[in-house]
Amino acid sequence: MGNEEKILILRNLTMTYGNHTVLNGINLEVGHGEIIGYIGPNGAGKSTTVKIMLGLLQDYKGQVVLFGEDISSGNPAYKRRIGYVPEQAEVYDNLTAMEYLTFTGELYGLDRSFAEQKAKKLMEEFELGDVLHSRLSSFSKGMKQKVLIISSLLHNPDLLFYDEPLSGLDANSMMIIREMLAQLAAQGKTIFYSSHIMDIVEKISNRIVLLFNGSIVADGSFEELQAMSEKGSLSDIFNQLTGFTDHESRAAKFISIVEDGDMNE
Ligand SMILES: Nc1ncnc2c1ncn2[C@@H]1O[C@H](COP(=O)(O)OP(=O)(O)OP(=O)(O)O)[C@@H](O)[C@H]1O
Known about the structure:
InterPro entries: AAA+_ATPase (IPR003593), ABC_transporter-like_ATP-bd (IPR003439), ABC_transporter-like_CS (IPR017871), P-loop_NTPase (IPR027417). The protein is α/β, with parallel strands linked by helices.
């Protein structure tokens, strides 16, 4: 692999679906140990950016360099250094947790018995040791989410792409994952964390990147973002930078339509 000073570089990344330009010249450089909170309104293009970096979408313009190598070179080796938790997970419900984890472990190039041992230990750490051999169809949302998080880490990747990773997790489990991500970053792993839960992004990220109308409109630490807007929570900053100030009138209008022609009146 080439120069790895920067784990991830996007140069003028542009993506168009039909005549809809979703990403309009994204430039980003991310180094070792950074936790990037990648935020933006619904439909801003966050998942599109991640899918491009995972090699799932090819017809983008611009350059994507991961671990010092342009991903368009056709060498898939970089994928083994990536862990991914998708927003909408297609877990194979008919498989047991162990079958699913050894299957994904082998996809990442792990030896089967090594993957099994690691999966068992990690499941036990999540208090899921008793259901290791149960089908995923019997798992709750949070239990499935834990299996996905384990599957993203089995091969000890250097770069993690997490899309709403904490969805469905209880408060205790969230604290464990938050702490785990902080410790992984301290070891030099890079985490690209996309979520709509602003108070968690605020706490977890050491750098926040806000995508709006196809462009990066803010890029810095939480304190730096506070300095460029009126002080407040990340949620307040998000509203300011995306020009959103009318939530009360929008909610009132929504309710007036709901109540419109109410049969009980
Ligand atoms: N396969 C596709 N074909 C056409 N348009 C698409 C396709 N995938 C995504 N889009 C469009 O691209 C835009 C960005 O979608 P994307 O899923 O990247 O947004 P997002 O920021 O991840 O949104 P959310 O916060 O709602 O998850 C949206 O307008 C979406 O409709």
